[in-house]
Amino acid sequence: METKNLVSWEDTLMKCIRCAYCFEGCPVFKELGWEVDGARGKLVIAYGLMTGELEFSDYIAEKIFQCTFCRDCVERCSANVSVPDILEAARADLYEAGYSYESHQQLLSKLENSGNIFGKKLDHPGFTGEKAVLLGCRLLERSEDAEKYLNILEKLGVKSKTFDETCCGMPFAILGDKKRFSIQQDKFKETIIDKDEEIICVCTTCAYFIKNKYPDLKMKYIIDEIVERLPNYKKKIKKLNIKVTYHDPCNVARGLGMVDEPRWLLCEIGAELVEMSTYGKEAGCCGGGGGVLVTDKKLSEKMAENRVHQALDTGADYLVTLCPTCELNLNNAAKEHNGRLEVKNVLDLVWEAMV
Amino acid sequence: MEKVDIKRLTEIAGKDNVRNNPADRYVYGSDSSVHEASAWIVVKPENVLQVQEIVRYANSNKIPVIARGSGSGMSGQAVPINGGIVLDMKKMDKILEISPADGYVRVETGVVDDELNRALKPYGVFYPVAPASSRVATIGGEIANNASGVRSVKYGAVRDSVLGMKVIMANGDLVNLGAKTRVEASGFQLDRLMVGSEGMLGIIVEATLKFVPIPKFRCLSVANFSKLEEAGRAITGIMESGAQPSMLELMDHVAITAVNKTLDLGLPDVEAILMFEADGMVKEAVDFEIDKIKTVCEANGGFGITSSYDLQERTKLFAGRKKLFPALSKYLETHFCTSLADDMAVPYSKMAETARKIHEVAEKNDLIMTAYGHCGSGCMHTKILMQAGEGKQWYHAKKAVEEIYDYVLSIGGTTSAEHGIGLSKAPAFKKEKQDSLPFMHAIKKALDPNNILNPGKLMDAPDDWMTATKLRYHVN
């Protein structure tokens, strides 16, 4: 049994003192309740695989793939143990040993053939300005929304330039296919014509992933750009007078470390913000990340349902967020509540306040 | 594992509450200690009847039963040294009754400390035992270890908050111990016997706990010291002065450095800091206590003292102490933090000397150690930071542990303040309690004749902690 990917994490696995503080906010542990389901349990499994005390099995694959990579555990760990990175390595070892789900293979084949998770050609909106903007496949697929968000930038004085995109490769990496991830990385870099040029990134997942896996690229998250420019546009803003609660996407709050800016933005457009019981860097998970949406849809839906319940408890009319995947998963869960809560992207509200 | 009748356990607890996969057995075989030993099976009971039936089955078949909360213990209490059934108690997490009039709360023992306090908050009261692990520690685990925490200096340890409990004995009988009243003088205090028994005498399934009003004012202060001895002298002075802090914490330079490496707190680069808090319903009373403590600190070389009543500021400041244990892993990239000699209590007047001794022993044995703890209760914590992959470092660690506890016992201290004995502190415990060990054995024999309840711990633990189980670290 080979664990060549996990072996490089041996020191970090020894650094984990197994204090269990990571149980506190782990959404999978909260849902399933066994210690193997929490971050510590998964690290102990990874350690056992690395030392040979455990062997690969379908059950272990199930546990290792049941993580949304929400990074709540990382936030609570003052030993700074990067659980998602270790699980990524464990997934790669499992994948190389033949442990992969049919649903993963279908997704990755689509990605390999089309360059996006939808498996079809996605045209970019054809903006021909000076500033390169990366939309990400979920927004390329929602072409009307993509145009809307680009128009926000236009109104703020950014002349966007869109281009033929291909996936940043995140699904390959998190589902353990390192070989195809490497190929996809090269393809992605090829699409970036000027590597020294700053790119505005609209997708939260791409923004965080690029920051980590493409350290040479200069990426700026769209919210940073909007927050910088909005003060000059302030007089033209129409206050919305709505009550919202904001779901911090993990890649934004815990990944990019951005907690205050989206809230400031909501305040600027006249939204009354009410917080859920968990928010900011300790925000609950939408259940959509880490591949769980395709690995274990039922579990993913339960996590989304929990988050929607937290939102309903606030009495807000809108549950707003920034990540298209959070939006999708939360929207599906909110539909069960007969229109008591509408899920929207913060950028939709910004646009409404601008027109 | 072949000894366990999975079918029977499944009948008792239900299919969804029984796990015997190697991964589960492995994960439930370690905690936050250096030990590791696989469980035979893991069962997650949902109610008292299920616990009773599981224990009856285990007793008939002489199978070990190890109750487990969150497995955050540092001495191996929840490690199934002889295999057996691990009872994961986290599903029994109901708060059964909150009685503001009578001043108690009744809970199932899988309730997490912080969750309990969230439920009590609307009533304006709190359960004051506050271990650093309160975010995950279950009430059952706290009682079984007689835990305490940062506020023990004012509010005491778990034993001071427990009024009564329901316990499943080794034969499966359910017994009520203690009472719901504040005082009770009816015979043997068997509830007290259960507190700190580390799951060896019974499985605690319900607890009646007293609570206290949430103070209106809390002020947290930090004093810096250039010398560790000065901080130690200040601790003695504070307690001697009759001041009533609600928290008095020491952090030495190793602890300060580790916290600064992981949390953006910018603690001063000094040899020691004291973190102290006073609380009360009247601000003037809190000010009075804080001023009194400040004066003692200053008289002993304390400087740069800052104080805050603001919750946000206090939370930020206290985060350094609250997350210290995992942060120690980051002190040196080459060293790993191990829970060895992790906990002891010494007389107040010996605090400074003990802290210095810890560093002396560490240096002598080529290790790094830290001194911190709830010094207002005489509680001193340390950890051994070492290259845990190197075999010879473990022998150094073994020597250091022995030297430290010999010293602690020589100055009138005790082996464990609040973390319990389990496996890794058993040699020192047995040395300290040698005259009362026969009584402990007799009690164990009387209550658990088949030795099924968490066998091989406390007075029954092996004499050599290093070989008691496999070490959880990959040692070359």
Keywords:
heterodimer; A: 355 residues; alpha/beta; four-stranded parallel beta sheet; 20 helices; 8 strands; B: 476 residues; alpha+beta; five-stranded antiparallel beta sheet; 17 helices; 23 strands
Describe this entry's structure for a reader.
The complex is a heterodimer of chains A (355) and B (476). Chain A is α/β, with parallel strands linked by helices and 355 residues long. Chain A has helices spanning 4-7, 10-15, 27-32, 39-51, 58-65, 72-76, 83-96, 102-114, 137-141, 143-155, 170-174, 178-191, 204-213, 222-229, 250-255, 260-268, 292-295, 297-314, 324-334, 346-354, and strands at 131-134, 160-161, 198-201, 218-221, 242-246, 271-273, 318-321, 342-345. In chain A, the strands form two sheets. Chain A has a four-stranded parallel β-sheet. Chain A has a four-stranded parallel β-sheet with strand order 6-5-7-8, sandwiched between helices. In chain A, α4 (39-51) packs across α7, α10 (143-155) packs across α20 and α18 packs across α19. The longest helix of chain A is centred in the C-terminal third of the chain and has 18 residues, at 297-314. The radius of gyration of chain A is 20 Å and the shape is globular. Chain A starts with a helix and ends with a helix. By secondary structure, chain B is α+β, with helices and mostly antiparallel strands. Chain B contains 17 helices and 23 strands. Chain B has helices at 6-13, 22-27, 48-61, 113-120, 139-145, 152-155, 190-194, 228-240, 253-262, 283-299, 311-322, 324-327, 351-364, 391-410, 426-432, 437-447, 465-468; strands at 18-19, 35-36, 41-43, 65-68, 85-88, 95-99, 104-108, 125-126, 162-168, 174-178, 203-210, 212-213, 217-225, 247-252, 272-280, 303-308, 336-338, 343-345, 368-369, 372-374, 379-381, 384-386, 470-471. In chain B, the strands form seven sheets. Chain B has a five-stranded antiparallel β-sheet. Chain B has a five-stranded antiparallel β-sheet with strand order 16-13-15-14-20. In chain B, α1 packs antiparallel against α3 (48-61), α8 crosses α10 (283-299) and α13 runs antiparallel to α14 (391-410). Chain B starts with 5 loop residues before the first helix and ends in a 5-residue tail after the last strand. At the A-B interface, α2, α4 and α5 of A face α2, α12 and β17 of B.
